[in-house]
Every structure is written in C-alpha cells, then in structure tokens.
Amino acid sequence: MTAMHFPLRLILFGLVLLNLSRLPAEAQGCADLPPSVLQFERPTATEVIEHTVPAEEVARLSGAPGKPPPHPLMAMAYALDSHIRTVHRVLPTAGGYCDAPKVIVVSFGIVRRDVYMVPEAAAVPCIRAALLAHEAVHDRVMDRAALDFMEQHRAQLARVIEMARQRPAPDEASAKASFEVDLLRVLGAFTGEFGATARGPLRQAVDSPAEMAHLDEACHGALGTMTSAVRLSGTAL
C-alpha cells in the first residue's frame, strides 16, 4: 500500500491544543512559545474505480504468491495518504528562531479505492453488485482502522511536535524546514506500519470463513459457482 496524493474531501475528527510553555527548553532557548493547534483530518474515498482484468491478473494483484487469491473474481487495492499542512509562526529568540505553528493539520487515511474484476463477473449485474458490496465492507473496516490508528498514535505525534517546537534554528527558513521534516518522518513510519496491518490482519478479519460462505451464496449461488469455476480451472474461466 503506497502513499499517493489525490483531491480529498476532508473530515475533521480530532483537535488538540498544544501549550508547551511549561516544558523545559533547550539551552539555546525556545521557551514561552504560544500554543499550537493540532488538527486531524480523515480523507474519504467515496468513489470506487472499477477495472476489468483477466483472472490471472486478479490472482497477481491479490498479492498472495503460492496461495489462491481470497476473491478469485475480484482484487482490491487501496491508496493510503498521509501529509501535513502547517501554518508556520517563526519567532526570534535568544538562541535563534523557533517555529511555533499556529495550526498543524495532519491528514491520514484511504484516498483511493480500485477494484479489479474478471469480465465475466462484471457482466452479471447481481454478481458485480455483490462483489462491490463486499468491497464496501473492506473499505469501512479500513476507514475505521485508520481513524483508530491515529488516535492510538496521537501522543507519539504530539511528542514529536513538542520536540520540534523546542528546537531553535539559525534562520526562519531552517526553522520551518526542520519542523516539516520531523513530522514527515514520523508520518512516513505511520504509513508503513498501517499499510502492513491493512494488508494482513484487517483484510483477513473481513474475509472470515462465514463471510466468504455468505458471499458465495449471493445471486442464488451463482457467485459461488463462478468462483468455483475459476478455482477448478486454475485461473481462467
């Protein structure tokens, strides 16, 4: 799962006021700074981008070498985006320049959903609808997990911001750049950590045996019959 940038519809889901004036400043001095407001925004990807591909491509996109794909008729791909917008406020101090941003906006979540479906499944309205409904379950689980993930890492992000605010720089440009680098570094680590979870436990939680059996029963069993045909033939229908 890679980080990509697309137009976002942003939803505010958190607000933290950081007042760090009571923290011990470094020897150079970044004390008594005005507070910064930290906002979390959650992007949403309401549109599903559909593709028709051969069954062999579905198996490849499922990313399970040597194993049968969880959905032989459909593969899913999600793009995760994490970035920041900062309203900088650089102040001169005795030790140089300190950045105490007015607002720090962190965006983290799924911004694009792609579904790759075999042509035979896409051509049957009931089967196509059932597969897309199953994908929607995956999306809801991913979306909620991204929100919970950032809530769980709120304190870690706040500590990084505290450290960045307390670090003086020789000039205004350096103060801004240093602040951005610190936040981007931790967000990059968050993206990798969440991506690994999304590819494994989250996907497996949705594709439980009971859920997969229910999916096979869709369209009076026609979806399961088509799925079995793919599995028996190896790849192609």
Could you explain how this protein is built, in words?
The protein has helices at 55-61, 119-122, 125-152, 154-165, 172-206, 209-216, 222-233, and strands at 9-18, 36-44, 48-52, 74-87, 90-93, 96-99, 103-117. The protein has 237 residues and is α/β, with parallel strands linked by helices. It has one domain (9-233). A hairpin with a 2-residue loop joins strand 5 and strand 6. Helix 3 crosses helix 5 (172-206) and helix 4 (154-165) runs antiparallel to helix 5 (172-206). The longest helix has 35 residues, at 172-206. The relative contact order is 0.19.
Query: Helix- and strand-based class?
Result: alpha/beta
Give the total of beta strands. 7
Which outline best applies?
A: elongated
Q: Approximately what portion of the residues adopt beta-strand conformation?
A: 25-35%
Share of helix, binned: 40-55%
Overall pLDDT:
82
| Main beta-sheet annotation | 5 strands, mixed
Low-confidence stretches: 1-28
Tally of helical segments: 7
Tally of individual domains:
1
Q: What is the H/E string?
A: EEEHEEEEHHHHHH
Tell me the radius of gyration: 23 Å
End-to-end CA span: 29 Å
